[in-house]
Design goal:
The chain is an alpha/beta fold and 143 residues long. It contains six helices and five strands. The structure holds D-ribose. The site of D-ribose has 8 residues, from helix 3.
């Protein structure tokens, strides 16, 4: 079922972390859709944010993880697409609140600023925290 599918995408700076997180997800039994990039050769992060937006809005994946050097460029690019709520998270608290308050459907990470252990913790929390709804529905409707 595509709702269960987790899409992953990164630029060159995020590639090694993407590969690490892919293993984590596969070990936990998640179906993974890898949208690239496929190596450390320089690429443009907006292209991978667009691929993520297409995968989620078309229903090929339910949630996603985007990674660049800081997480800033790729989250800015992703949030230009209707239906994408990409949250740049730096720790378990921001990952938890991105789900509870913002119903984020994309976790954005910065591979040059967030270490792999913290990134894995963010991913775990992001995947296992629900949206609270209630007053937040009104705010999301204004996005
Ligand atoms: C690539 O050098 C770097 O600019 C990119 O990964 C990202 O950090 C942009 O926001």
């Amino acid at each position: 079922m595509s709702e269960d599918v987790i899409a992953l995408a990164s630029d060159h700076a995020g590639f090694p972390l993407k590969e690490e997180l892919k293993v984590v997800l596969q070990d936990q039994g998640y179906p993974v859709l890898d949208l690239g990039t496929d190596g450390t050769q320089s690429v443009d992060y907006p292209d991978f944010a667009s691929a993520m937006a297409e995968a989620i809005t078309s229903g090929r994946a339910g949630r996603g993880v985007l990674i660049c050097g800081t997480g800033i460029g790729i989250s800015i690019a992703a949030n230009r697409h209707r239906g994408i709520r990409a949250a740049l998270c730096h720790d378990a608290t921001t990952a938890r609140l991105s789900r509870q308050h913002n119903n984020a459907n994309v976790l954005a990470l910065g591979a040059r600023v967030t270490g792999p252990d913290v990134a894995k913790e963010c991913l775990e929390v992001f995947l296992n925290t629900g949206y609270e709804g209630g007053r937040h529905d009104r705010r999301l409707a204004k996005l």
